[in-house]
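Structure in, sequence out. Go:
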């Protein structure tokens, strides 16, 4: 059932801003979490022929999978953002070392584009925090943004988050880093 959180863990993380290490799964994130587990297993099976620095390759691969699983499980907006940003580091090394073609160019283009998207996402998250006073996705989802006094215009929050996600997901025409990275 979507909206009902299961397998929750919650611990105070940054009390000054009321940020928590809060993870859990619901009816939408659980299938994505399981799919990522399955795909990670397939990637390990497919990668058995890696000869160039295999220990480092699999370490980066493990960090990448951990960060993506963290994105699907996080219930705190700041934790979500940090998991998503951790993913950039292993992707950079996987592309620049084990990639093909213009791998250094592709890795740098990937980092620069996603850095721009990250800046927009962070600005949107900060606007959301200053408006709601909360970083909890569950609290924001239950109360709705409309129930708060708008400190920051809702349209600004929307377009900052939309712009950040459009670059990072990627959405046409903000996806020009994708062909090079893949």
């Amino acid at each position: 059932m979507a909206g009902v959180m299961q397998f929750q863990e919650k611990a105070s993380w940054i009390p000054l801003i009321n940020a928590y290490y809060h993870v859990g799964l619901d009816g939408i994130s659980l299938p994505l979490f399981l799919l990522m587990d399955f795909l990670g297993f397939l990637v390990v099976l497919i990668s058995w022929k890696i000869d160039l620095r295999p220990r480092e390759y699999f370490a980066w691969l493990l960090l990448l999978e951990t960060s993506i699983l963290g994105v699907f499980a996080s219930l705190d907006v700041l934790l979500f953002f940090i998991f998503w940003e951790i993913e950039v580091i292993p992707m950079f090394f996987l592309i620049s070392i084990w990639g093909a073609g213009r791998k250094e160019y592709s890795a740098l283009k990937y980092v620069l584009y996603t850095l721009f998207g990250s800046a927009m996402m962070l600005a949107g998250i900060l606007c959301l925090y200053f408006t709601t006073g909360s970083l909890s996705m569950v609290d924001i989802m239950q109360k709705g943004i409309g129930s708060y006094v708008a400190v920051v215009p809702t349209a600004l929050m929307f377009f900052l988050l939309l712009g950040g996600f459009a670059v990072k997901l990627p959405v046409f025409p903000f996806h020009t880093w994708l062909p090079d990275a893949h």
